[in-house]
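Box S1 | Example of a co-folding query
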Amino acid sequence: MPINRPRFVHGKILHNAGGGIFYRMEVALPDRIEFAPGQFAMVSGWPGNDPLLPRPLAIFRARGARGKGTVEFVYKVAGRGTALLSGLHEGDPIAATLPLGRGFEFGGEERTYWLLGGGVGFSTVFPAAVFLEQERSEFEMFLGARTRDQLPPRDWIPGGGLPGRVHPCTDDGTAGFFGTVTDAVRDRLDRLKTPERRRLMILACGPREMLRSVSSLALPLGIPVQASLENHMACGFGVCWGCVTEVREEGKTSYRRVCKEGPVFDAREVVW
Amino acid sequence: MPINRPRFVHGKILHNAGGGIFYRMEVALPDRIEFAPGQFAMVSGWPGNDPLLPRPLAIFRARGARGKGTVEFVYKVAGRGTALLSGLHEGDPIAATLPLGRGFEFGGEERTYWLLGGGVGFSTVFPAAVFLEQERSEFEMFLGARTRDQLPPRDWIPGGGLPGRVHPCTDDGTAGFFGTVTDAVRDRLDRLKTPERRRLMILACGPREMLRSVSSLALPLGIPVQASLENHMACGFGVCWGCVTEVREEGKTSYRRVCKEGPVFDAREVVW
Amino acid sequence: MTQAAVPDIRARVGEVLLKNPVMSASGTFGYGLEFTPFYDISLLGAIIVKGLSLEPTAGNAPPRIVETSAGMLNAIGLQNIGVERFVAEVAPRLADAGAAYAANIYGRTIEEYESVARRLSGVPSLIAIELNASCPNVKEGGIAFGSTPEGLYGLTRRVRAATGKPLWVKLSPNVGDIGAVARAAEEAGADAVTLINTIVGMAVDHRKRKPVLSNVTGGLSGPAIKPVALRMVWEACRSVKIPVIGIGGIQSAEDALEFLLVGAAAVQVGTANFRNPNACVEIVEGIRNFFIREKIARVDDYRGRLVL
Amino acid sequence: MTQAAVPDIRARVGEVLLKNPVMSASGTFGYGLEFTPFYDISLLGAIIVKGLSLEPTAGNAPPRIVETSAGMLNAIGLQNIGVERFVAEVAPRLADAGAAYAANIYGRTIEEYESVARRLSGVPSLIAIELNASCPNVKEGGIAFGSTPEGLYGLTRRVRAATGKPLWVKLSPNVGDIGAVARAAEEAGADAVTLINTIVGMAVDHRKRKPVLSNVTGGLSGPAIKPVALRMVWEACRSVKIPVIGIGGIQSAEDALEFLLVGAAAVQVGTANFRNPNACVEIVEGIRNFFIREKIARVDDYRGRLVL
Ligand SMILES: Cc1cc2nc3c(=O)[nH]c(=O)nc-3n(C[C@H](O)[C@H](O)[C@H](O)COP(=O)(O)OP(=O)(O)OC[C@H]3O[C@@H](n4cnc5c(N)ncnc54)[C@H](O)[C@@H]3O)c2cc1C
Ligand SMILES: Cc1cc2nc3c(=O)[nH]c(=O)nc-3n(C[C@H](O)[C@H](O)[C@H](O)COP(=O)(O)OP(=O)(O)OC[C@H]3O[C@@H](n4cnc5c(N)ncnc54)[C@H](O)[C@@H]3O)c2cc1C
Ligand SMILES: Cc1cc2nc3c(=O)[nH]c(=O)nc-3n(C[C@H](O)[C@H](O)[C@H](O)COP(=O)(O)O)c2cc1C
Ligand SMILES: Cc1cc2nc3c(=O)[nH]c(=O)nc-3n(C[C@H](O)[C@H](O)[C@H](O)COP(=O)(O)O)c2cc1C
Ligand code: FES
Ligand code: FES
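Box S1 (continued) | Returned holo structure for flavin-adenine dinucleotide
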């Protein structure tokens, strides 16, 4: 049976190697997993209790057949946990709870999509790109980085070969658009015709500030924004209430679990 | 400057591979170390604080030249720390405080030696064998294991090629002498002539029970026994008082630090 | 010596007989139903649900959690759906799943505690009420009650009078003499004491010069606190005659056995569920296998058998 | 903003001015001389030597230590060479090495405490006496004094009267209200309080069914306790006006800075010395570099500047 609802599994690392400032790790699992773009895993398995908690990583790719599967993660070294992951080798054990959370929702056939990935946020939107490509839906990608070297390797980008589809944005102008993803989006939105706007939907993952500013550009124009949030998590499957973010619904605010009601939220609801 | 008094150094693993039930690890260090057989290192360097404390390992071998050295350890997986060590790979970092403790003392030229290694205890007596071989002193080795497969690999044994010099002993008789190291020692002592006895000195490392029983055989015959003890340690260099063993001197007993006054003790002083 | 082929691992907590000595800890297991994708929750000794209050509670602003060495601090602020929704929506589903479950409760006043306890008393499938007198997070919460024997005695007596359900009192470790606090609960009529709740701790960001948690302090849990928990459980077992439920840093069957060995009637597993959602059932299996291997026929043949 | 090119990292603990805010903790640094192979011990703010008693003390039977998750339990039982030998043999060598050093002391009775303090008062190079009112290991030891504000007040007053040296009182964390205990020390005339000592914990061998330590319980130290220590230091800083010396789980300059940030005048480093004998000097360097990077001119520009 494919893994399509949360399960705790033990796997073994097949590859774990750097690409630019990122690492890409493939793990052999006891079964194929089925996931929605935007869903994630809680990854652990290192020896000892320090770090204690598993780390959330977006599911970048999953392959396999009956009784045999692999999952891929793309990550950046941010602290102790990811540093530890980056030191693991082929054959080392990994444990993971997956697939978790609510992924992106896709609109009808007439929709076009902009996928925004700030920093390592691309790892969350790439599976959406793969899905849209399969569906033959129209999409473009905006990938933000501080500088050229911090962009994802070109051969990792789904549909990266299609000219005009992928828009790298660098803060220092060393590659692609000179400016942030938000700047690029503002630029394009200004030049967009109303029918195009009507069809557009934005799926985004990146720093909270990027998500906030993109939302404040797109929402007033009636463009739906799905924002994938990143909070520190203890469990990842909704039982600790540690990962909440404030949301507004029918005028009232409340705390929602990023791991369960998210990580993808309708940007209109998020209290930024 | 060679490292000949305690220093805390960072190294990198060169090899770390199994041989029978043992592992042998070689670590590149910033300098050559000089050590006495029986001295040890406190080994750590894994990520995180769990395990927290370094683990004591005998210095098995050290090589190198000015400004560049290596140290080798031989170990058995006994628990969390050694299991963790066994999972490390070439290139992984290791930290060590070394060389530590008081090693074996050698008698005059006329001495002959029996080196006793019970279990992984051989890692402590092998450097003594290497030293005695260099000095062209006479020695024999008794190596104990539960069964044949648990003996140290033959090609690790210094002077292992010389017939009659190395006496494997197995509890189940699957190789060498049928019985424990203590049994073999008792056997040989019975047949030893007085002049031979007078020249004999025993250097031993292994389970406490083996050290105790060998001492109770040899000491009454006036044969000096140097026993290398193994206690759990926190610091390894004499500042925590965690590793003490009871010793008797001039009729009074007191607690001595295994890491500082030992690990090698005159067996007459140890309160077994 | 062959009697123990199939050991009896049922555990008795006063009048409550559990399938096995392993319960999930309050606040780390949601309302229990969240674990149904992972395993059959009726396999557990019991589930202790997230602390319930009279009204739904919003909890603290984020950040609410931060990892520490072999532990974590939490300041959830007891976010929960309130006792009414629990009784109406969750309790029936737990009963349907065949799960044994108890409700952890708290109030800002003794009267609120009483009301929650009363409301739960009418739920037939509920096996016990666990009174959280120790949560260190909410300023108006249990801290005043749980931190002195007198305070705890007063609270326990009132809640005791308000409900006919077995009453377990969960103790705060942030006290000087855990035995005295356990005795106060016993004297006030508790059927059992549960310990330990989290130890108050703090984390700061030395660069931003700010506390990491919005609540400034939080409760420390996880393997880091196990030695302290084990000592306190041992002391409590020597201080009271009522059953002691041991908790704090349990990650494995070996850890759970340690608590039984010092005298706990049963154990609870908290933070371990986060890294390994199967932790509780794996611990049940591990205890069973240990009993088989060591030919232990029943829990009482092992429990409290520490040789000093 | 260029003033802090060479920051002044000297730290003031009452009338004592330290080279820097980093001291080695008692019981984890021997008598200081053991570290001379590793580095020049005069580089430290101060060395606190192993707890001294009136007579040489044999300490507890082994096993005395056991590792726990991110921590360790010890029940050394205060093995030491006694105050006479310390004064005769060790103190002169520490003075020769240029080290600033203080003596941690304990007694089985108030009179013993007084005698040790008196004996040390005549040692000119000794910068302070640190009164260990909290060691949880020795049954006849400090535990009775340190566990209540009243007990601590009585002890501190008597030792205060017995010595003209700066008197630092080291507090036990095994209390309900650390602020109250700190205030008792302050009122009794302490020049500073040091906290925390180890938290009482326990480890058992579930297979052998025996405690791991011969003393049954031991003191928990190391990174596991850091969040608890930091919280208690923060509370103590808000409870007293005398300087607070922070200790518990410090492993790095970042950890040390956290204690300064919540208000500690200086810090002590204990268990970290075991894994990394250079820990203390590396922490001194780390603090200096942080101050350079962040352009902080002196300790008081950072100390206690936590923004709530
Ligand atoms: C759903 C989801 C999907 C993700 N997908 C990916 C992915 O695909 N690839 C990827 O690289 N990353 C991803 N992340 C982010 C990733 O989980 C973090 O980078 C990682 O957990 C950091 O762990 P660490 O141990 O390396 O860093 P840590 O040492 O834990 O911390 C890194 C930084 O966060 C700070 N911090 C720690 N705790 C808190 C807290 N409670 N509140 C605020 N700040 C805190 C620390 O001070 C430090 O600066 C994802 C996160 C989420 C929630
Ligand atoms: C001077 C010296 C030299 C050594 N040289 C070598 C060597 O060359 N090769 C080698 O393989 N080993 C050597 N050892 C032994 C080695 O240090 C241990 O096997 C190792 O530290 C075990 O660590 P671990 O984490 O794997 O096991 P752990 O998990 O720490 O424990 C292993 C076992 O010890 C028990 N234990 C833990 N703490 C205590 C305690 N305080 N008292 C009693 N029992 C306890 C545990 O319950 C467990 O059964 C040496 C020891 C010393 C003192
Ligand atoms: C995120 C979190 C939430 C908790 N919420 C509660 C609660 O609502 N009521 C309660 O009595 N204890 C609560 N606790 C405490 C646990 O039940 C348990 O006592 C503590 O975590 C120690 O056990 P552990 O180390 O196994 O986690 C909570 C703990 C955590 C980590
Ligand atoms: C092995 C050991 C021995 C100790 N001996 C003493 C002592 O003699 N006197 C004392 O006041 N504290 C003693 N302590 C406590 C430490 O000084 C310190 O307060 C405690 O370990 C917490 O700090 P840490 O986590 O940095 O180790 C000892 C601690 C350890 C680990
Ligand atoms: S991480 Fe536990 S509820 Fe979201
Ligand atoms: S291990 Fe610390 S004194 Fe021996």
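The pocket of FE2/S2 (inorganic) cluster (ligand 6) is lined by residues B 233-236, 238-243, 257, 259-260 (CB under 6 Å). The radius of gyration of chain B is 18 Å.
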